[in-house]
Amino acid sequence: MPSADIAVVLGTRPEIVKLAGVVRLLEDSARIVWTGQHWDPGLTTAFFRQYALPDPHLTLSGVAGEARGRQIGRMVSALSDHFADRPPAAVVVQGDTNSAAAGALAAHCAGAPVVHVEAGLRSFDPDMPEEANRRLIAPLADLHCAPTATAAAHLLREGIEAEQVLVTGNTVVEATLESLPGPAEARAVLAGYGLRPDRYLLATLHRPENTDDPVRLGRILGQLAALDLPVVLPLHPRTRAAIERFGLSGALAGLRPVPPVDHRTFLALAAGCRLLVSDSGGVQEECTVLKRPLIVVRNSTERPEAVRAGFARLVRPGAELDVALRESLADPDAVGALAGRPSPYGSGTASAEIVAAIRSRYLAEDRARLLCAG
């Protein structure tokens, strides 16, 4: 018989950030399963502490650093064993990571309903590993929590039944609002890095399409280093390793590389910068809450809402990136123009809506209580 709890599969920093609110609202009904996909303490442990999450009920081993196929295979095997030994009432996965794909497949094999948070995103780019993960999860999910109407429409076009799709907004909104430091703390963070508000750029790079190509990575670093304003670059472990492997350390001379930062520090830096430059999916969402302009250095995006709303601009390295950087920095109202625009990802109620749906559909006591009340 299924347990009276919900297994929440986490494996990366963004999953911790985006599912922390769901875990806390589920209270004792949440069973945290940590896959270990992200293994750097700066990307994991600090985030568990920051969001006041309990230690995982289960931590997998032998996953970190493996190639994608082996990583997913090992996670599916271990999660299948766990779900068979202790069947959950449902399994929650988030986004498009290898952990999410493995969690959904293992849950489906165990006969457990799958709740997909941030469902329905589509880049329509077959070269993007995350696109394959998203499309793998969709037919396995029982409840699709779509962040926007656009994402929901993708699911409906793919044949998902309407009663299985719930438009909730994105949990990143409440996570950002919760973690964003106040003015005094934010000023202290900037001072610690020797920065002045609106007088620097914040950049992040970690996607394989940028880090695995030495020419492309070197070009991006060179274009950033050529700017007149300081560029703060928190270095993802993958990016640092690529820079060393390709002999590009000299390209960092004109930048301000720093170790990975916790979410609160990152938000303080992002909220005070003149311009964001990133290939991160989460930053495309966070910029709409922080009201800061973003240049997205990628081939494609599964988050067109941020582009349509005027917060983000999708470009590729080379002349296109040079033009975007010049135009953004030359516009004196680039930041001010965003101040009054609403985020296309909701107002900060996504976690509550998701948990309400989970309780009513999968937790027997809550479902019975609702039926009696009705």
Walk me through this protein's architecture.
- The protein is of the alpha/beta class and 374 residues long.
- The protein has 17 helices and 13 strands.
- The protein has helices spanning 13-26, 45-50, 68-85, 98-109, 129-137, 149-157, 172-179, 183-192, 208-211, 214-225, 237-245, 263-272, 281-290, 304-308, 319-330, 350-362, 364-373; strands at 6-10, 30-34, 58-59, 90-94, 114-117, 143-146, 165-167, 201-204, 231-234, 256-258, 275-278, 294-297, 312-315.
- Strand 2, helix 2 (45-50) and strand 3 (58-59) form a beta-alpha-beta unit.
- Helix 7 crosses helix 13.
- The longest helix is centred in the N-terminal third of the chain and has 18 residues, at 68-85.
- It is globular, with a radius of gyration of 21 Å.
- 46% of the residues are buried.
How is the secondary structure organized here?
Elements: E1 6-10, H1 13-26, E2 30-34, H2 45-50, E3 58-59, H3 68-85, E4 90-94, H4 98-109, E5 114-117, H5 129-137, E6 143-146, H6 149-157, E7 165-167, H7 172-179, H8 183-192, E8 201-204, H9 208-211, H10 214-225, E9 231-234, H11 237-245, E10 256-258, H12 263-272, E11 275-278, H13 281-290, E12 294-297, H14 304-308, E13 312-315, H15 319-330, H16 350-362, H17 364-373
Parallel strand pairs: 1-2, 1-4, 2-3, 4-5, 5-6, 6-7, 8-9, 8-11, 9-10, 11-12, 12-13
Which key terms come to mind for this protein?
46% helix; Rossmann fold; single chain; alpha/beta; 374 residues; six-stranded parallel beta sheet; 17 helices
